Amino acid sequence: MRYVSTREQTQTVTFATALLGGLAPDGGLYVPQKIPTVNPSAWERSTDFGTMAANVLTPWLGDEIPKAELESILRGALNFPVPLVRVGNVWVLELFHGPTLSFKDFGARTMARLMNRFVDGEPLTILVATSGDTGSAVADGFCGLPNLRVAVLYPKGQVSTIQERQLIVRREGVRAFAVDGTFDDCQAMVKSLLVSPGRLRLSAANSINIGRLLPQMLYYYWAFATGGWKVADVCVPCGNLGNLTAGVLAHLCGLPVRSFIAAHNANDGYPRYLAGEEDVFGASIRTLSNAMDVGKPSNFERLKFMLSDDQMRRMIRGSSWSDGETLDSIRRVYEETGYIADPHTAVALAATRDAPDPVIVLSTAHPAKFPDTIERALGSTPEVSSGLTSLCAMPVRVQSIEAKPHALRSKLEIWD
């Protein structure tokens, strides 16, 4: 199995090289040179997530990791439930039962263990830009691994209080940086340093890294196996388009997705592209569903590489929803079903209100991470998990920096 850059397809690399490099040297994103086939027998009627996960990922890794070792890695990383629950007229796949209560635990925990397996020599510094949940999942997944350290960048004042606490809790081998800018600024800083690392040894943990995307395919297969469907729609709350891209990869491998619904907040560049508009991406807009506040999604480059405009517009339909509509969705779903959805899932539930059955909604975060928004919608806050409560007693460490690549570089060069 070989991987190429979205910009220069003449040089192929192994999965390990793509994983540890993060971004290709030409600034492109790594994609498979050829989409592998995943036999339906690998996932149909699966009742064990670990076995299914190893069956699905093995064709993507070739012979770089023995299957038994890969299954052990996946069982250690993904040791939490993935329930599929009926909510009104849709099926909700709850992806927030990992340690940081968001779907980012799937990619971050798996990637950390894969990187730790392949890395050698001097420590590798992992850069991650976050608009909410990615950073804490990466920090938790990578902390304490001997040859890896993590620099988390987040836009100052633009994440929820609980999300920020998860980001800045003191962890071994992790540094958090509050950037005076937007998520797009954080992402641009990461890309700049990856292309010109100087004497730093760097990689990335955002969904620009193929090692983050591949594990996110797994829960698509699990949903179909658990539901027993021959075909279904899937609705994805979208920001940087990584979660959607993972689903498209699974579909191109043979997963019978009828169509994808790309649900967005006010950052609606991608739905506008799907509607036929041009020059649609711009500065990000702050919303209640902050993890989706991405103005210039990196994975659009991957989607454009894999699919023509016509193919993408046939396969994916987009929609966007305001903060007011998000609050209305939280309220309506609770009144009709008793289910409390976080603001990101609420956007997806709004997008699927009239969708044909079966439709799967990817629920990306626990509502307890957004108590202020839930209280605005319902008049009360959701029950807080013991893991979130314990954060308040833990020491923190964070540094404020300008939204400039050189500001980050100077901090990384004096890492202690």
What's this entry about, in short?
By secondary structure, the protein is an alpha/beta fold.
Which descriptors apply to this entry?
416 residues, alpha/beta, Rossmann fold, six-stranded mixed β-sheet, 13 strands, 41% helix
Account of the protein in words:
By secondary structure, the chain is of the alpha/beta class. The protein has a domain of 193 residues: Rossmann fold. It is 41% helix and 16% strand. The strands form three sheets. Strands 3-4-12-9-10-11 form a six-stranded mixed β-sheet. A five-stranded parallel β-sheet has the order 8-5-6-7-13, with helices on both faces. A two-stranded antiparallel ribbon has the order 1-2. Strand 9, helix 10 and strand 10 form a beta-alpha-beta unit. Helix 3 crosses helix 4 and helix 14 crosses helix 15. The relative contact order is 0.15.
**Kindly state the mean pLDDT as a whole number?**
93
CATH architecture of the domain at 76-101 and 212-378: 3-Layer(aba) Sandwich
Structural class: alpha/beta
Q: How far is the N terminus from the C terminus?
A: 38 Å
Describe the strand arrangement of the main beta sheet, using strand numbers: 3-4-12-9-10-11
Beta-strand fraction estimate: 15-25%
Q: Quick one: overall form? A: globular
**Portion of residues within helices:** 40-55%
Q: Report the top-level CATH class of the domain at 76-101 and 212-378.
A: Alpha Beta
Task: Kindly provide the radius of gyration, computed on alpha-carbon positions and rounded to a whole number of angstroms.
Answer: 20 Å
Number of helices: 18
Uncertain parts = none
Q: What profile does the largest beta sheet have? A: 6 strands, mixed
Q: How many DSSP-defined strands?
A: 13
Q: Remind me, CATH topology of the domain at 76-101 and 212-378?
A: Rossmann fold
